[in-house]
Amino acid sequence: MVEMKKTGISKPEFHRPTQNVVCALCGPDVSHREKFAERLPQEEISFSCRRAPNRIHYRVVECEKCRLVFSNPIYHESQIIAGYQNAEYIQEEQTSHYLVAYREELTRVLDLAGKVGSLLEIGCGDGYFLRVAKDMGIPRVCGVEPMKSAIEKADDDLRPLIHYGAFHEGLYEENSFDIVCMFQVVDHVVDPVDILNNVARVLKPGGHILIITHDVKSWQPRLLGERSPIFDVHHIFLWDLDTIRGLIEKVGLHHVFCRRIRVQYGLAYFVRMLPLPMRLRLSLIGVLERIGMANIAFRLGGCNMVAVGRKAAE
């Protein structure tokens, strides 16, 4: 049940990054090398989702052993949580395009899992995917979301199913869910091992975790380098096919598969995310809107990936 007050959340004050981050897979005893130097502004940072990229990020490093890419140092975790709590939730047309891929991958997991009675989504926004899961016949759906403005926009029947706050140990009983989903979330969390350990606890024996996230080794970041939109102050860990598999196995889940996927994009959204000057992007989007092509959808492969893990059956 969601319980929210209109006041009581103070805006975070962002100072210099002071919280050190270590490789989630190898720990503190392995060295890392710098990929990109820090690029942070002095003014307040927005944690609203699906906004145009503003090319700001923490110092980005790469583990010398497993090649996991991550930010170090970062703002304190309490500042990051408060940033999401205060952020404005913006749902755009692109959401419907993402849902195409999310639904396709959930269908594949349902084919593997057989009869499914329950699903949890971590970082569920306003519950748009929970609606999809219900429509696909899953009787019990739950969500966790730290952004208050997102939950306020949820449908009346979904809002009571969404927990306001962070996903943590003890939030749900052990062995509660057949499927746990994380869509574009595992790159945002400060401690992904802790999150997935808790996912493993709440999964029923034989249950599945479904992750969709950016692939830092895909053609786009390789081509654009630091100008890729995935290098962003919101992203703490950036995964590839090997490291996301390593994360799944580190918490004791069985790796089922990892692969790159093709995601549908609206043309205007795609232009907005290009590494071009803002004025030029807005001009191009204006042209697309005038000629009626802004909402044309197309599929682009290689920038995102899906990973599925399974908890051992008893």
How does this model look, in words?
The chain is of the alpha/beta class and 314 residues long. 28% of the residues lie in helices and 24% in strands. The chain contains 9 helices and 11 strands. The protein has a 7-stranded mixed sheet. Strand 2 and strand 3 form a beta hairpin. Helix 2 packs across helix 3. The chain starts with 31 loop residues before the first strand and ends with a strand.
> Radius of gyration, rounded?
19 Å
Distance between the termini: 31 Å
Strands ordered across the widest β-sheet: 6-5-4-7-8-11-10
Low-confidence segments? 1-9
Nearest-integer average pLDDT: 89
Q: Number of DSSP strands?
A: 11
Number of helices: 9
Which class best fits the helix and strand makeup? Answer: alpha/beta
Summarize the helices and strands and which ones pair or pack.
Elements: E1 32-36, E2 60-63, E3 69-71, H1 77-86, H2 94-113, E4 118-122, H3 128-135, E5 140-145, H4 148-152, E6 162-164, E7 177-183, H5 192-202, E8 203-214, H6 219-224, E9 237-238, H7 241-250, E10 254-266, H8 267-272, H9 278-290, E11 297-310
Parallel strand pairs: 4-5, 4-7, 5-6, 7-8
Antiparallel strand pairs: 1-2, 2-3, 3-9, 8-11, 10-11
Helix pairs in contact: 2-3
